[in-house]
Amino acid sequence: MQRDARAYLWDALQAAELLRGFSKGEDFAGYQANAMLRSAVERQFEIIGEALNQLSKVDPELAAQVPDLARIVAFRNILIHGYATVDDALVWQVLTERLPGLADVLRTLLKS
């Protein structure tokens, strides 16, 4: 049985909300110094990327409304397969600069 496409949006939004909570009050130096935080952040980004990748298979029209979906999935692939070369500065930049906009889009799509 195929999963409802909105469930993937929900999964991605929940991961985004966790990321927001994880990073609250943190700065880049604190992020770099905390291996557990880095691991948690990377894991939630992996979930976002996988959820949106699955969404693109189940409902391509809905997935097309997510800006930069291909880049999000590629970012997930880097985190999983290129774990030895993950750039903390890039992860932090995505977390602080790109994630809020993505979360807004996910909320909007879930409401519609």
From TrEMBL:
<dbReference type="InterPro" id="IPR037038">
    <property type="entry name" value="HepT-like_sf"/>
</dbReference>
<protein>
    <submittedName>
        <fullName>DUF86 domain-containing protein</fullName>
    </submittedName>
</protein>
<dbReference type="InterPro" id="IPR008201">
    <property type="entry name" value="HepT-like"/>
</dbReference>
<comment type="similarity">
    <text>Belongs to the HepT RNase toxin family.</text>
</comment>
<keyword id="KW-0540">Nuclease</keyword>
<keyword id="KW-0597">Phosphoprotein</keyword>
<keyword id="KW-1277">Toxin-antitoxin system</keyword>
<dbReference type="InterPro" id="IPR051813">
    <property type="entry name" value="HepT_RNase_toxin"/>
</dbReference>
<dbReference type="Pfam" id="PF01934">
    <property type="entry name" value="HepT-like"/>
</dbReference>
<keyword id="KW-0378">Hydrolase</keyword>
<keyword id="KW-0547">Nucleotide-binding</keyword>
